[in-house]
Each structure stands twice: as structure tokens, then as C-alpha cells.
Amino acid sequence: MRRRGVEEDVAERVLDRLVEVGLVDDEAFAAAFVSSARAGRGLGRRALAVELRRRGVEPEVSEAALASVEVEDEEETARALVARRLRAMGGLPEPVRVRRLVALLTRKGYPLDLVMRVVTEAVPATDGEDCDPDQLSG
Q1: C-beta separation of 93 from 126 below 8 A
Q2: Could you report the per-residue pLDDT of 5-48, keeping only the tens digit for each?
Q3: How far apart are the C-alpha atoms of 85 and 100, rounded to whole Å?
Q4: Of 28, 82, 87, 108, which shows the fewest CB atoms inside 10 Å?
Q5: Is 56 exposed, middle or buried (0-12, 13-18, 19+ CB in 10 A)?
Q6: CA distances from 67 to 14, 40, 62, 117, 135 (A)
């Protein structure tokens, strides 16, 4: 409203009234956003926190909404993303698949330990050993 030239006291009264009647509810917005972004875009906790902050949600409200994200759910979502992406990577060499999957999950805000565990399980090394983290750079 400030950008549109509305006086500050008028804008404050309008916002207070909207909150009073339940039309502005940051807690409900944050919870709905977390649920929607996890289901639709497969975002991890870190990316969700960034998106909520970008949308002006207070850190306390954001943390409360993110508390609903269980570690098991986050891992399940990461596994589903990897499985879906692997289907499109059929002919690529193992180091390329690993690098791309790690990049995907990292961009989506998943913690590195979870990323490495999920990718290592999904793309077993061709020689039977765990994937080499040195293959991930580049």
C-alpha cells in the first residue's frame, strides 16, 4: 500500500481490520505454502525457509510451519525426486547422473547428508563401491 501512496495510518488500520476478520493470517499462509511447495515442487526445509522469508513471513511463523516437515517425509520426497529424474537419465555415465542428482537435491534445499545418502543408494557405483564425492565437482 505504501507503494501506491496510501497514508501509513490508513494502511495500518486496513491491515489491522483484515487481520481481525481473518483475511490476513501468516500462520495459515505459511502452513499452506509449506504443504503446497513440498507436494508440488518437492522443496526441502532450507528452500522452504528461504521462500517463506522472501514472501515476508516472520522467522518464528516460518519455523512453526517448517516444524510440520518430518525428516522421514523429507527423505521420501527426495527419493521420489531422484527416482523420477533417474528415468530421464538412462544413458548417462554414473558420475554425470550422480553430479546432476546431487545438484538437483541441493538446489531444492535438502541437507547434504540426506542428499548423499539418497543419491548413493539410488545410483550404485558401477564397480560396487560407494560413489566417490570427488566425482561430484565439475
Answers
A1: no
A2: 778 887 778 777 777 766 678 898 999 999 999 989 999 999 99
A3: 9
A4: 87
A5: exposed
A6: 31, 19, 9, 22, 34
